[in-house]
Design goal:
single chain, four-stranded mixed sheet, Adenylate cyclase, Adenylate_cyclase_1_N, Adenylate_cyclase_1, adenylate cyclase activity
């Protein structure tokens, strides 16, 4: 190792200009060595970029790259091109000639630096170049804009040579104050990282030309009084101000910087884990030493002062590795140390298991070989890491566990560090929250979520051959398993699966999300007890690729500020099920699509719903059995209550009927979705076989009610709810029945009476003011006798309601009553409604006036008082014989004592409801109950 005498200047002892010159020369020697290493690493075609950058900022010549106009600032302080640079320029443009300036005038460009991995063990042939252009702080905005335009032109020229460059304009005065107009490197983030960025700059930057850093001339042990030291250097003219560039010192680093830098590296680690985890570990070391931190930049400067000039030892990545290694060994974290070494090895991208690509070993390879000898790795470990581009599922899953453990630990460490240091900045809290959600979306496990295992580990995980098997698991339940290679049935038990799931679609979704199966993968199928065919399997995989392409677009910070919502939904119906098999449907020949003709059978045996949400999480849910459609619809609609509307695709690959089944299910879903989009507090009614499913949206909460038969449905429709609640019907609900025809007529604020005549029977239906339904089946003689009792009752009810209103309100209190006759289907014409005029109420109507007053009694039993032609009949007098007494009275009033039905013509429920107003359907239900008791008494023999 080359060593030089240690230099230990002390401010109080005076400063020697020769010592300063020696120190500057040492840094320039190291700088020259790093620049040579950088040039050696990049391809020959790109080397002119690095060699000519100082000259291209020094001159503004029309025939040279980067020329924009004659007004662009040009001139690099303290720079004169050497013969080699001029020769390179003339190779680029033969007619170029350079005329040296006379005298030293102030120049607009103060310094040029190359920052980052160039010249280090981490540099690759395709590493990009981050160039800091430090300019005169007094440059006017117009000239700054022109300089920025020149940088863009140089970036385009470099790109034409295959070199990716980024230029950053640096105002030294603003930079010292921590002010900058843009991100300075691709490693920057939203939370300020001034000192950490400066630390990285001082230990990695390669000086290309112009003024040299003043920081070089201040000993590391004087960093705490950096400003005083610099004032003496400049005021005493030990160095001229026009020769040096001051970007500030590495004083006390605020705790918030560690949090900000850690958040950013965690974010980047989700896509490029090895590079970012290396830096994340360094941030952890720094934070753990805070506030007695000694950063690597100061270690680098101390080494130079001590005469340690060996480039390998001063390599920024090697120095960082040794610092982290010591920290992890002290903590006994052997697993994390192994991960650190893998991160460094993979970042260098020098496969030691293979011979050098050139005739001789590169300096990077030699350095890595020396370093890795201390790790005691065997050839197998080198081969495994060098084949990372070929890693498939097993290797990726194993590595993922280590990476996720490290990411999780780092997130918790940063959160605890923020609490311990009382870092309460709102921007930090926001960043921490966003990162937490990004980590949650990427690595958190939860029910139904398909796990992404490839966190930037392998570029291609697609397998050439796989075997998909349905079999019984250890518990005796059916499950699906995926195996490497193409296996025969008798070979399967000798291998362990890559993945096992209870259902098929979660397994296929896992393969799709992680790129394990692509269009070229051959999958051998052993369907077991399922109905899966190779054709259906191919269709399922194709449907996944077409509907939910991978990878999805990146998730923005704004999206992560909100809860995750579905963005794309794929529903796969009957995957691995044939609904026409005898064991699935007992009436195969009469089976119908759900909702078509008579819904005697349901061909939807299972639905697998794959949902990609706004956080790029892929969630799968499985619904099976007779309730599959209703359960899936409930789950889907419940996810839409916030108004989001994902892209929906429905697929079914059942032979012959698959397209029809999918179209029908998609029709149901879109109709229900549209129903809830039109109005709040809506309801949607679906029929599956003989059952009915009501989906009820109230206060942004979806409720699902199952009604087992038509009787249960009618009972529900007759419930009072005292407000208008839209009810939307599936378009094929109760095909051929008159109920959908009636419910479709729902209107607010009026009463609608429907009647259907079937021989000597008639069915009366009423939709009240809030569209609650009342039905009653009655003997039929003629329309007058059928409708008049109901008309009289509603007339009395209207009179009572008018009496409860003020006189001013009675003018608008009248409720319209509409009558319809339900006409039977005729030829091609289906059942239809014919509007009818209400029956006239004659004064000499032979019907008896029967008034009922219902009042609350003891033990929650109602007390009924009946008035027949003003004759009072009370339960207080007659007890349980009340209805028999009224029946005897009515029969006595009839000439021949006929026992035809009797009707309630007026009803008072005010005592039961206090100041509230009962809904019409409640009156009608009481009316039906009282009439049934009265007519039963009239038909009794003893009356």
């Amino acid at each position: 190792m080359t060593r030089f005498p240690e230099i230990h200047p002390v401010l109080e002892d005076g400063i020697d200009r020769k010592v300063l010159a020696t120190l500057r020369a040492r840094f320039l020697t190291i700088n020259r060595g790093r620049l040579e290493r950088a040039l050696e690493t990049i391809p020959a075609r790109q080397q002119p970029v690095l060699k000519l950058l100082p000259l291209l900022f020094h001159v503004n010549h029309p025939i040279m790259p980067g020329y924009v106009s004659g007004t662009v600032p040009a001139g690099l302080d303290e720079f004169e091109p050497d013969a080699e640079t001029l020769a390179e320029a003339q190779r680029l443009s033969r007619s170029f000639s350079h005329k040296p300036q006379r005298g030293k005038l102030p120049q607009p460009i103060q310094s040029l630096f190359l920052m980052g991995s160039p010249g280090t063990i981490a540099q690759e042939e395709q590493s990009d170049l981050d160039v800091w252009v430090c300019h005169d702080p007094q440059l006017p905005q117009q000239q700054l804009d022109a300089l920025r335009t020149k940088c863009e032109a140089l970036k385009s020229w470099a790109a034409s040579l295959g070199c990716e460059t980024h230029f950053f304009l640096i105002n030294p005065e603003r930079f010292i104050r921590g002010q900058r107009e843009s991100k300075l490197t691709s490693e920057d983030c939203g939370t300020t990282q001034h000192y950490l960025l400066l630390d990285e700059f001082y230990r990695t930057a390669i000086w290309l030309g112009g003024r040299t850093p003043l920081w070089w001339l201040v000993p590391d042990y004087e960093e705490h009084r950096y400003d005083d030291y610099v004032d003496i250097l400049l005021s005493k003219r030990f160095v001229r101000s026009e020769e040096v560039l001051d970007l500030g010192n590495l004083g006390n680093i605020p705790a918030g910087e560690f949090l900000g830098a850690g958040l950013w590296q965690l974010y980047k680690a989700l896509e490029a884990p090895y590079k970012s985890l290396f830096k994340l570990l360094l941030i952890e070391v720094y934070a753990s030493e805070h506030p007695q931190l000694r950063c690597l930049g100061l270690d680098y400067k101390r080494a130079v002062y001590r005469g340690q000039m060996e480039l390998d030892e001063l390599d920024p990545y090697i120095a960082a590795y040794h610092r982290i290694e010591s920290y992890l060994i002290q903590r006994g974290d052997q697993e994390r140390l192994a991960l650190l070494r893998r991160c460094l090895y993979l970042k260098t991208n020098k496969p030691l298991s293979r011979p050098p690509t050139r005739h001789r070993k590169s300096w990077q390879r030699c350095l890595l070989e020396r370093l890795s000898r201390d790790w005691k790795w065997d050839e197998r470990q080198f081969i495994q890491l060098d084949r990372r581009s070929q890693w498939k599922t097993r290797q990726v899953e194993q590595e993922r566990r280590a990476l996720v453990n490290e990411l999780t630990y780092a997130y918790r460490f940063l959160g605890e560090f923020a609490r311990r240091q009382n870092i309460t900045s709102s921007i930090d809290e926001r960043d921490l929250g966003i990162l937490g959600r990004r980590l949650q979306a990427t690595i958190e496990r939860k029910a139904g979520k398909i796990e992404a295992i490839n966190l930037g580990i392998s570029p291609d995980m697609a397998e050439d051959q796989l075997t998909l098997v349905q079999s019984y698991d250890a518990a005796g339940d059916l499950s699906w398993a995926l195996y490497e290679g193409s296996l025969h049935a008798r070979e399967i038990e000798n291998y362990s699966p890559l993945k096992r799931t209870r259902e098929l679609i979660p397994l296929l979704g896992w393969c799709h999300l992680n790129g394990i199966i692509d269009s070229a993968t051959h999958v051998s199928l052993h369907p077991g007890d399922s109905d899966m065919t190779e054709a259906e399997l191919f269709a399922l995989l194709s449907g996944l690729r077409q509907t939910i392409p991978m990878p999805p677009p990146a998730v923005s910070e704004e999206t992560l500020l909100n809860a995750a919502v579905p963005t794309q939904v794929l529903m796969l119906i009957n995957a691995g099920f044939d609904p026409f098999k005898a064991e699935h449907t007992p009436a195969t020949k009469s089976a119908k699509l759900p909702g078509y003709d008579t819904p005697r059978e349901n061909l939807v045996l299972s639905i697998d719903q794959l949902t990609l949400n706004s956080w790029n999480e892929l969630i799968v849910s499985h619904h099976t059995g007779p309730q599959a459609l209703a359960d899936c619809l409930n789950s889907y609609l419940a996810s839409l209550v916030d108004g989001n509307c994902p892209t929906l695709q429905v697929r079914c690959f059942t032979p012959q009927t698959g397209t029809s089944i999918a179209r029908r299910v998609e029709e149901i879903i879109r109709d229900s979705q549209q129903a809830f989009a039109e109005a709040r507090d809506s309801r949607y009614l679906l029929q599956v076989r003989q059952q009915f499913h009501l989906f009820d949206l109230q206060s942004e909460q979806l409720q699902h009610t199952q009604l087992n038969d038509l009787g249960a449905l009618l009972e529900y429709l007759g419930e009072a709810h005292h407000r208008q609640r839209p009810l939307h019907l599936d378009r094929n609900l109760l095909a051929g029945h008159d109920l959908p025809l009636i419910l479709a007529q729902g209107k607010t604020g009026c009463l609608q009476i429907f009647y259907r005549i079937e021989g000597d029977q008639a069915e009366l239906s009423v939709l009240d003011e809030f569209n609650a339904l009342w039905r009653q089946r009655l003997p039929y003689r003629d329309e007058q006798s059928l409708l008049t009792p109901l008309r009289r009752f509603l007339h009395s009810l209207e009179h009572r309601r008018r009496a409860q209103d003020t006189l001013d309100a009675t003018a608008s209190a009248s409720m319209e009553i509409l009558f319809y006759r339900i006409m039977p289907a005729l030829g091609d014409r289906p059942t239809w409604l014919e509007r009818r005029y209400p029956p006239r109420i004659e004064v000499n109507d032979p019907l008896h006036d029967v008034q009922a007053i219902v009042e609350p009694g003891e033990q929650k039993r109602s007390q009924v008082t009946l008035y027949c032609n003003q004759q009072e009949f009370s339960s207080l007098e007659y007890g349980n014989g009340l209805f028999a007494a009224v029946a005897r009275y009515i029969l006595a009033q009839r000439r021949l004592g006929e026992r035809y039905p009797c009707y309630i013509t007026d009803l008072d429920l005010s005592a039961l409801h206090g100041s509230g107003r009962p809904q019409t359907v409640q009156y009608l239900r009481y009316k039906t109950h009282l009439e049934a008791a009265l007519n039963q008494a009239m038909m009794a023999r003893e009356v």
